[in-house]
Amino acid sequence: MSLFGDPAIWLPLVFAGLMGLSILIYVVLDGFDLGVGILFLFAEEDDKDIMVSSIGPFWDANETWLVMAVGLLLVAFPAAHGIILTALYVPVALLLVGLILRGVAFEFRAKADRARKPVWNRAFLGGSLLAALSQGFMLGLYIMGLKISAATLAFAALTAVCLAAGYGFIGACWLLMKTEGALQARAAAWARRALLPVALGMGAVSLASPIVSPRIYDKWFAFPELLLLSPLPVLSLALLGTLFVKLRSLPTADDRGAHVPFLLSVALFALAFLGLAYSFYPYVVPERLTIFEAASAPESLIFILAGASVVLPIILGYTAFAYTVFRGKASELTYD
After folding, report:
1. Is residue 133 part of a domain?
2. What is the count of structural domains for the chain?
3. Would the pLDDT of 336 be above 70?
4. Which domain holds residue 114?
5. 3 part of a folded domain
6. Considering the entire predicted model, what is its pTM?
7. Would you give the end-to-end CA distance of the chain in angstroms?
């Protein structure tokens, strides 16, 4: 029977692809708006309204992709959903606290008087930072096979800091593209400073994954895989080098090229995600449960796929529409 003739094979692959796509889109889209919140730590008070204005039309809808990814994990891979969320219960709870705090702060700062606005600015910063650190901690534990020890917790703490820096980096690239004047210059400086921790984080994950798992080591370093996969690290290094050079020349007087670092950062995140996806395939729970073992019955997946084939294009269309309508530079924030 061909690969696409057996629904017990191709349906789990389809849902793994949809879940992976949702996670990647979430990391990029909510990554930059979480990053803008993290950058409140370094921003001038007068800049914060413009920073919020730059993400205002997008931030809430960006979180739709997280709901999509978790929902697909629940309905398509229920066994894996139980194992993963049980192992990551505490960081998941902290992630939700961070997202709630961030959302509340976003709304309340809009109506707060000048004296109380700094309180909500700190809450927005705290929620953004807590959400980013929680996600990075979960990533680190997942790479370590969801095992708890002093070493795995230390690695998870490292990935938490590096992912927060990565979000700050892509957030700075977003602000470089969406703002002007002194704030744009500061955004370029923030991006330059965040590039090193981003590179260190990617390097740490790339080294740790094959060390932890002999299977991943063989997938990357056996021949001819080593030769066939070499473009991924080469392209990642090339993107990091290009970002380093490009950021040194920005911003320019005519604003030319201000969008390039953001696009390059999206490409960098996508390459890192592809590397991780290749490393862990076909496992959805590292070294314990494959996507085929964790998948729901084909009859259930067919039904869910019919719904996803309607919902996913609507979300993609709305996302594209919103980013098209609100393209261009961020304007002054008003609530009149």
Report:
1. yes
2. 1
3. no
4. 10-325
5. no
6. 0.91
7. 64
